[in-house]
Amino acid sequence: MQVYADNAATTAMSRTAIDAMLPYFDKIYGNPSSLHSVGQRAKEALDAARETVARCLGCEPREIIFTSGGSEADNQAIISAARCGEKKGKKHIITTAFEHHAVLHTLAKLEKEGFEVTYLDVRKGHNVTAQQVKDAIRPDTCLVTTMYANNEIGSILPIAEIGAVCKEAGVPFHTDAVQAVGHLHINVKEQNIDMLSLSGHKFHGPKGVGALYVRRGFPLVSIIEGGAQERGKRAGTENIPGICGMAAALKEACDHMDENMPRVAAMRDRLIEGLSKIPHSALNGDPVNRLPGNVSFCFEGIEGESLLLLLDMKGVCASSGSACTSG
Asked: What's residue 148's pLDDT?
């Protein structure tokens, strides 16, 4: 028997997602930009998927841009805000010290261009606060970007509170919600989120497809040049099978969230209780505001890679950190 406990890295595709994708490989295979009937049927599927994703996030369909995944969405959001701020003489960005590399590496690139980045410390409780964000905002701040929930230690950040602080200060707010979408209730309007990144393979959809929510009116910059797809903001023929599979998986996750969250959280708490009994063990992450499916521990004197190999030999697939940092 094998136990897969690495769903923060990727999830198995659901039957719902697979079935949603199949017609677009060999039946409705047209280019959605084509005017003929086969292309227009693909365009109808694209529009329907966009509407589905928008409903799940509480936004308008035209505010959804389909991408190749969360990393591309993060890059486009951050670069767009930076270029917009640069035109106004604002080159200060606020983030946290435990962001995903898609955010950290993009910010490091901007620092080489003269931008200044404030990295908020992750304080006691393994989280950051809205007050930290408020204290860090300056007249030249052009963006606040924080993850919605941490991919390694599971802490859920106070997104609504941070969004309120940013709105009051007139600073754009982006959240990398790759670990949260499909697992937590999200409403971008209510939470004052200006941009949000998501990735299909984190909620039982396909790999290689994601989306960026961008508040209507925000000046988005293209980072891939070419055709006029996605309202001219993301060139390249849309991945119709992947987009339809992602939309179906997200709808299924949102439809069953109220039953799945307490069920998964109960298993999480049972595992935390058991692991806490091991001598010299320590729970990582916020013990209260935590993703339903995340358990992260440190064991004194134990080397992570060796423990993972031993667990794998016993049929347990786990991780000692982000899969995106392991090469």
From this structure: 98
For residues 109 and 298, give the distance between their C-alpha atoms in angstroms, rounded to a whole number: 32
Mean pLDDT (10-residue bins), the chain, 327 residues: 96 98 97 97 98 98 98 98 98 97 98 98 89 98 98 97 98 98 98 98 98 97 96 97 98 98 98 97 95 96 94 96 57
C-alpha dihedral, 248 to 251 to 252 to 254, nearest 10°: 160
Based on the residue annotation, tell me whether 84 is a catalytic residue of this protein.
Answer: no
Say if strands 141-147 and 173-176 run parallel, antiparallel, or are unpaired.
parallel
Please pick, among 84, 166, 298, 324, the residue that the annotation labels catalytic: 324
- The rounded distance, in Å, linking the Cα atoms of 297 and 188 is 31
10 Å CB burial of residue 5 (0-12, 13-18, 19+) is: middle
The CATH code for residues 21-252 is 3.40.640.10
* CATH of segment(s) 3-13+255-325: 3.90.1150.10
Question: Which residue has tokens 């694209």?
Answer: 46
CATH 3.90.1150.10 occupies which residues in the chain? Answer: 3-13+255-325
How far apart, in whole angstroms, are the C-alpha atoms of residue 138 and residue 282? 37
Kindly report, as residue ranges, where domains of CATH 3.40.640.10 are found in the chain. Answer: 21-252
pTM: 0.96
Partnered with residue 92 across adjacent β-strands are 116, 141
